[in-house]
From TrEMBL:
Gene Ontology CC: plasma membrane
Membrane topology type: Peripheral membrane protein
UniProt GO molecular function: ABC-type amino acid transporter activity; ATP binding; ATP hydrolysis activity
Name of the protein in its database record: Glutamine transporter, ATP-binding protein
UniProt family annotation: Belongs to the ABC transporter superfamily.
Keyword presence, Transport: yes
Organism: Streptomyces zinciresistens K42
Matching SUPFAM superfamilies: P-loop containing nucleoside triphosphate hydrolases
SMART domains: AAA
Subcellular location: Cell membrane
Length: 248
């Protein structure tokens, strides 16, 4: 089944969120289909990070529903911890534990949250590290790795939990330019491998090539959602055209 016809892995309807009197998300309705890569673009302050945080239940929406497959995450009494374990999140700042080895950073949640025996957790961690090209670094400390390598460890850490969906919030924005491409390559591999992903990014080249659809956020609204071809080559929305003229 291709992403265009697959069932939604993640479905958001009528999502709103305010901080005090400041409305940050306005009636967002969007889905991410199984196996799809949805890129979220838009100006700073448009609500992209808040949307991802709502998806991961790090923020509580004021209105609207979020469904992960058949599970209603915003239902009263929903098992938030169980839901979060199915969603991998990669932030701009990777927050690895400095006193643990790279391997332990990846395996810690497998032993502490999933209850795997230490040797099996290590095995899984090494496999995930191999996927991001870092198996040889397993026994180093994070401080001995470049920023780009550390971010790839953070991706391996999220993948180790076998999430249904991966969320990325500007995963490459804090990196030196020459380190960005290795992280994007890992993300491209994941997308090509059929992972379901929602990716907030300023990397328009990545959005153009790796996204199945691109969503443009503006003033807390999802202003446009379409194929990369239509977003980047044939945009009509004036706010989108203006945004693209600034970033391309
Ligand atoms: N915890 C918070 N408290 C108050 N305002 C917030 C909070 N988080 C985000 N905001 C505001 O919400 C708006 C959207 O922020 P954000 O989702 O971070 O946008 P983006 O990721 O698109 O740059 C901004 O105006 C920001 O200042
Ligand atoms: Mg943000």
């Amino acid at each position: 089944m291709t992403a265009a016809t697959a069932a939604p892995a993640l479905r958001v309807t009528g999502l709103s969120k305010s901080y005090g009197t400041h409305t940050v998300l306005r009636d967002i309705t969007v889905d991410v289909r199984a196996g799809e890569t949805l890129c979220l673009i838009g100006p700073s302050g448009s609500g992209k990070s808040t949307l991802l945080k709502c998806l991961n239940l790090l923020e509580t929406p004021d209105n609207g529903e979020i469904w992960l497959g058949e599970t209603h995450l915003t239902a009263p009494g929903a098992d938030v911890d169980a839901a979060r374990a199915r969603i991998g999140m990669v932030f701009q700042h990777f927050n690895l534990f400095p006193h643990m080895s790279v391997e332990r950073n990846v395996s810690i949640a497998l032993t502490s949250v999933k209850g795997l025996p230490r040797d099996r957790a290590r095995e899984t961690a090494l496999r995930r590290l191999a996927e991001v090209g870092l198996e040889a670094f397993a026994d180093r400390r994070p401080s001995q790795l470049s920023g780009g390598q550390q971010q790839r460890v953070a991706i391996a850490r999220a993948l180790a939990m076998q999430p249904d969906v991966m969320l990325f919030d500007e995963a490459t924005s804090a990196l030196d330019p020459e380190l960005v491409k290795d992280v994007l390559a890992v993300m491209r591999d994941l997308a090509a491998g059929g992972m379901t992903m929602a990716v907030v990014t300023h990397e328009m080249g990545f959005a153009r090539e790796a996204a199945d659809r691109v969503a443009f956020m503006c003033d807390g609204r999802l202003a446009e959602i379409d194929t990369p071809g239509r977003i980047f080559e044939r945009a009509e929305n004036p706010r989108l055209r203006q945004f693209l003229s600034q970033v391309l």
